[in-house]
Structures are given as structure tokens and as C-alpha cells.
Amino acid sequence: MDKKTLTAFVLIFLIAIIYPRVLRTMFPDLVPPPVEEQTIDEPALTTDKKIDGVYSEKAPSANKEKEESEIVSDNNDDLSLVEFDEKIFSFESEEMLFNFSNRGGSIQAVDFLKYPTSYSFTSSEDYILGLSSVGSLSGLENLEFVVTENSERRIVLESVLKDDELKIEKILERTDKEHFYTFRLRITNNSQNKYYMKDGPVINAGSVIFDEKDKRRKRYAAQEATAFMISEEVQRIKKNDIEGSIWKDNKYIWVGIQDPTVCFIFMEKEKILAGWNISKKIELFTKDDDADNIEIITSSAKLRSIDIAPMDTVEYEVAFYAGPKLYYHLASIGEDFNKIIDFGKMLAPISRTIIWGLNKLYSFFHNYGICIIILTIMIKIMLYPLTHSSMKSMKRMKDLQPHMDEIREQYKSDPQKMNREVMALYKKHKVNPLGGCLPMFLQLPIFFALFKTLNNAVELNGASFLWIKDLSAPDAVPIGPYFVNILPLIMGVTQFISQKQTITDKRQAQMMMFMPILFTFIFYNMPSGLVLYWLISNVLSIIQQSMINKKG
């Protein structure tokens, strides 16, 4: 086997080994994750359960606790068939707009005013903070509520049922921190009988919508639907792994449901939660004669059952976050809410530094495109001593190429002797043949951390730069009836020029020219912010290498 053929086989082998690993790292959605042992498929926490909550003239004895679940009341109400006109009540602040419905007393629509995200639900089962059942009472997501208070700080909705014997109140109150609320569910027993409740209330802790046609939610965007905080660890479930519904017992500090931009986090203040249900359904959504399938992911919290004495009230209180996935804002709230953002374990320190740096730069330049360029220059300056040494080594390698060709020709019949002579030539001129690869390897952790950061940086959503309308998505320039991503093509040209500057062996030129094509293919549908980083990095490398080549 001649040397060219051997070199070709080695390169093909390396690409076959390394390229799939790169794909798995960059595009985790293409590889299904292992099934978690703690995840158990069970029926959803719906309201068609056996009737367990009843009124009774007297409390059962202590030794008859098991018999409570066997008591059936004839006066249980399924309220799903009650008809009334739906009315909407707005609860608004500078950063959020909640549209509460009198149907279920829950959030029918939510608008994140400072970010390009809003949700509007058509089914009361998806309404956020919707109550679906309490004990034997089902269909509560369709129960009619009235607003008793709607002030700047809080909104209170209530409903009275079972002949005025049971009153349900839902209170959402702002805190001093943006996007952070206190939610209370109060149940009052106005009767003279004790109310036994084996199954606790089930409430919607958040719903998010994934639209296949949404340009911002490409396959490169974060696809975690939920995150569970367990002590210091976070367990994640991707939306593609949810089939029907998933039940989780309550051993979590908080549960968050998220899309690439925003999240809802539900955290108990006391031990009031019994478990969680995560469900997914697909609906056909039609707007302006354009039909599209959307995925609705819902997190439901089952609260602990509490028996209510006559003329008494029980109250469930939780902390509720509804807002963008801003890392340092979530960190300022506490409770490790910032861990809902997946920066990875090993690269998290670099990602946190990058997002901190971007935000600091933005406070001066007010444009994230400019911030990315400056950040790229700063990274290049940090790596300058290593890249400079590497580029000088590559220049020496190129200067030594005629001598290496002579050695190969002279000792072509004795490969071992040829290799010894080549290594002696490297040693004499103090050239490290692997020195040119070092800057690339040093940039890989930064690159992957930046990839994670830009995919999770809500700040870049809708951030424009030059012709780019959204740095968190491909630039998608309309050319006739098609959309063409121009920035990756420009990046491919700079990759070609940079590659050409560093090729030392003309016999390898054709094979090495394959790399710019491969890079263009990989970067083509990536977020524009990430492509911009690599493009500027290439331009700086070309300038640096040109200066070294001119100096000789």
C-alpha cells in the first residue's frame, strides 16, 4: 500500500470516528437518550378517577382509615358539562401579561412582553394554574370563577359549589422579584360536616407549545420539556421522550417546564406535593388557512390530600416562576432555578463566563452582534501566545517542504530511514509537526461551551445584526422563493482561505480542502450568533497567519 492510500485511509478512519461524536454533541436530538429508571409510565392525573372525597355526618374511627377510599358519594359533580360564556380578565405588569379566564379561574393566555414569546390555549385542560379535580369533584377546569380582586399586586378568583358548602379560591400575587409569584389555593368547608379528601387537588403547573414551523425552535435549540431539581442534581426529560404521560413521585425540590425561550417553575414552600404528571398531546392548529401540528407539553402537580374540618379552610402555597430563561436573573431568585438551563456539567463554568461577558458587553454596546465580535477578539487575545507559536511552526513546516520532498525522494525505498531523517529535520529547525493542531483543540471547549450558551441565551432571541434578524436562528435571507443562509457560506470561504494558508504538503491539498465543505455543511443551519463567532475567528486567524508569513 503506497503512502497516499495509507494517508487517505487514516483520514477517513479519523473522520468516521470523530464526526459522529461531534454530531452527538452538537445535535443530541438525533440520538435517543437512555430511558431513565425513575420514569414510570402511568395514566395521567385526569379527573376521571374513583370518587374518594365525600361529606360525612361523622368522622371515621382511627382503625377505619382504609375504609375511607371505599365510601362513595351520590352527590359528586362532574362540572365539565356546565355551560356559560367565557370571559377574560387581564393581570398585567411591565414584563408580563396574564389573561385569566373565568373558565376554571386559570391562565388562558400569557404574553412575555419583553421577549418574542406568547401562548394562547384553546382547551381549558391546558390553561395554566387550572384546577382539574379536588377529591371526588371532577371537571373543575370548566368550573365558573368570578374575580373578587384584581389589583396591581394580585388577582383573586373564587367559585362556590355543592350548594355553597365548598368554596375554592385561587390567588396569584407578585413578589419583589420580576417574573416571580406566590400562588395560593384555598379550599373552605362551609358545611357542618367534615370533608374527607383522599386524592388531593390536581393543578396545571405550566404548559408550553412547540410549533414545528417556528423558525426559532430548530433542531439545534434546547429541547428539554421539563427539569426536576433533586438535591444538587437536575434530572431532565426531553419532549421527544414523552409519550402520552409520565408519572413522577414527589422527591423533587421544584419542577420546571420549558421551551427554548421561557419556563414555568413550580416549587412547594411546604411538604404539600404528592407527585407530578408530565403529558404531551398533539393538536392541529389552523391560522390564516395555514394548518400545522403543535405539541403541547403540560406539567400537572398533585397536591397532598388534607381533610377539612367543618367551617374550616386549608391553604396550599407554592412559589411560581413564569418568565424567560435568563441565567443570572434566575440565579438571583435563588433555589437554584438557574439550573433549569442546561449548559452541561464540564462546560458550565465556561458557559457561565460567556453569558456573563455577553451581558456586560451589551450594557455598553447594546447590540449582541457587536458583543459576539468583541468576545471573539477577546478569546483570540487570550489564546494569542499559543496560536502565534503554532502558526510560526506551520510557517516553518511550509518552508521545510522542499527539503522534506528531497528526503522522501532520496529514501523512498527505505521508509524507516526516511522517517528518521524527517524527524531529524524537524528537530534541527525546532519544528513541532503537531503544533498546528493545538489551537484547534484549545478552541473546541470554548466552541462547544459557546454552542450551549448561544442555544440557551434568551437574550439573543430576536437580536438583529446587519441583515440578520435573529442571532439565535439561521439568517435565512430570502432569494426568490427560497431562503438561503448566507453567513455559513461566507464562513466556508474564510475556512477555505485559512486552510490554504496552513497546508504544507501539496499532495494533501485536495483532501484538506474537503474540510471547508464539511464545516459549511455542519454550520449551515446553526444559530447565526455561533456562525458569526466562527467567521470572525477565521478572519482573525487569516490576518494573524498573513502577518507571520510576511515576516518570514
Report, as a whole number of angstroms, the end-to-end distance: 37 Å
Number of helices: 12
- Shape estimate: elongated
* Quaternary structure state of the chains depicted: single chain
Q: Unreliable segments (pLDDT under 50, ≥5 consecutive)?
A: 1-16, 25-76, 215-220
CATH topology of the largest domain: Beta-galactosidase, Chain A, domain 5
Number of domains: 2
> How big a fraction of the residues is strand?
25-35%
Integer average pLDDT: 75
Count of extended strands: 23
What spatial order of strands do you see in the largest sheet? 8-9-10-11-21-18-17-14-15
CATH secondary-structure class of the largest domain: Mainly Beta
What percentage of residues falls in helices of 4 or more residues?
A: 25-40%
What is the CA-atom radius of gyration, in angstroms? 30 Å
The structural class is: alpha+beta
Sheet with most strands: 9 strands, antiparallel
CATH architecture of the largest domain: Distorted Sandwich
